[in-house]
Amino acid sequence: MSSVLERFLRYVQIDTQSDPNSATFPSTARQKDLSLLLVQELREIGIADAHLDEHGYVYATIPSNTDQHVPVVCFCSHVDTSPDVTGAGVKPIVHYNWDGTDIVLPDDPSQVLRIIELHDLDQQIGNDIVTASGTTLLGADNKAGVAEIMAAAEYLQAHPEIVHGAVKILFTPDEEVGRGTEHVDLQKLGADFGYTVDGEAVGTLEDETFSADGVRITIHGVSTHPGYALGKLENALKIAGEILAGLPKELSPEATTGKEGFIHPVQVEGIQEKAVIQFIIRDFTTAGLHEKENLLQNIMQEVLARYPHSTAEFTVQEQYRNMKEILDQHPKVVEYALKGMKRAGLDPIQRSIRGGTDGSRLSFMGLPCPNIFAGEHAFHSRLEWVSVQDMEKAVEVIVGICEEVANLVLND
Ligand SMILES: [Zn+2]
Question: Tell me: domain 212-320, CATH 3.30.70.360, correct?
Fold first, then answer.
């Protein structure tokens, strides 16, 4: 048994909720309460360079214990929790040797974990499940990952017979508000590649994410007094409505799954003279994004053709790209992870995420970075849970990846 459970229980009781409406960085000062504790605990296990930088990132190095050249691997998790559900006053409960019956959370008995409603829960009978008490989230997203990386670091420090290269640890703030990589210093980190430890089911590895753009359509109609509008008024609100009505239903989030992309309006605002529609465009390829953008632009032109005195601007903003574009150039990064999982006795499941991760951004910033499981489930909700056994497996996988990186290089 590692220290992962004890660490996890300690970390989730520290409120680290981030705030999307804050202009500061990190968005909330309380995130540093956990980060400072992590620095102190890293130093206690002998990791001398552990420190918190001025932006709230924790950097640390487990030094190499071989004089051979082994690539530098980084493990990364985020310390903040979702703004969607409160993270203040979390009271974690361990349900030891769970027998599969409903878990009623004591502080709000309307919150019940049922095996038929929560996916993957049916795999956990006989395991020890950790939940919150009913009024808060648990924070397994991503403190499970934080605790696993910490426990793996402690294990490596206590087992010098395990040969490994330098291992970098990175704990980031503000992932949940989309700013987790904003002030990361990859030069200082000095890793060749990395893994975010922020995935769901045990054994999963995610090496594909959406590619994402934002589109903004700004419509300039022709405004008049409505009483004297005959033959003159071209109402921007109605033009916006016609564009929305023209969207293909089969390319919506509610009609797509797997590797299918979509066109999704997220905001409309306006008056009769001017209206703005914001969209998010998602696909797994850049070409697929461009196809959807062209389609949307054609819909806009068709509607505008019916309003000869109105104009519109169509602007595209790049958001992030599928990390697979980068990972395909570094196939060993995924290979190490799959081998590390097999070494821990798991049957790895490689899959894609219909969303983005900090790893997508890190990959394009120069640190190829797939996502491996942390065991967190039902995150951003009061039913959030994680099992102790899955966390222990994640610790084994982190140690196993370090061993595989050294092995594959030293035996090459
Ligand atoms: Zn997360």
Answer: yes
